[in-house]
Amino acid sequence: MKTIYFSIIISFFFTTAIFCQSEVIHIKNPSFEDYPRPERVPEGWIDCGFELESPPDTHPSGAFEVVQTPADGMSFLGLVVRDIDTWEKVGQKLGKPMTSGQCYGFKISLCRSDKYVSISKHTGMKANYVEPTKLVLWGGNSFCDKVEKLGETPLIEHTDWKSYIILFQPQKAYSHIQLEAFYKQPILAPYNGNLLVDNASPMVPVPCDSAAIWNNEKYEALFNDIAPVYVDIEASDVDVSSTLSPTISAERIALRKPISVIYYNSSLDAEGRTKALKAIVEFFNDRPSSKANIIIEEHTKAQRKLQKQKLLRDLKQLGIDKSKCKITLLKK
Length: 332
What we know:
Layout: E1 46-47, E2 57-59, E3 76-81, E4 89-93, E5 103-111, E6 117-119, E7 126-128, E8 134-140, E9 148-152, E10 162-168, E11 176-182, E12 193-198, E13 203-206, H1 216-224, E14 261-263, H2 270-286, E15 292-298, H3 301-318, E16 325-331
Parallel strand pairs: 14-15, 15-16
Antiparallel strand pairs: 1-4, 2-3, 3-12, 4-11, 5-10, 5-12, 5-13, 6-7, 8-9, 8-11
């Protein structure tokens, strides 16, 4: 059963007139799709973390012993909090600014990995960043700008994906958002924890002045009725002006247009491999004249060769000409 969380208790009265499609604020790369790799923020998002700390990760690459299957698409975002009082966060410029005083609903899938093994700077030893954290949503007017806390979830302790809805009413017309993992509060001492993030929704206008709280079914119907819209990631989205936090360099926020990357690694289980092949088929259905960029990343040359052989076999079975695929072999 999906979990619904209300960051602000607001009463609602159902009226279809309020949900004009033009008022919906779409998110760039809401499914956090990209080539899975440690210290790689998914396309459309930027690292808003602390100076001298590594960026968040795109999973599942097998790094840090994280083996969770995505809630949606082929990849998801991994955020951590650390025992040295630093935590990870990502941000982006919205397709359009929020409307001041308008109430919005924002849905996102979250869970915790029971393994996220890395080195602690505090002890210099391996640590499992496994303690529960929460997601905090911020609004601002430039990249990594935190002006108003719009909402947050409870601590995410479960290791299976669950959906959360954050309801919020911005006091200003913010043009940027930030998603951050944060500690349990009050904080007695910083600790090592992780938060997995996937399948974000658009920000959907909802009425603020009703007399009855909607039930879960109405919320689910609200988000299901919003047609997905692809939001281009343009160079103009990147703001390298002096309004940026001094810890964020222009190089770290250099965004490219989304690239069509499909990964096919031994870390994928049967379901993951099926999804990868489905993604290849869908790619050619949508862009028959394009070349699919398929990444194979393994520890050894023999493993890379074996995975390429499996991929070529699968492509043949699907009736896909291998010359239409750019297969890149990388060392993990």
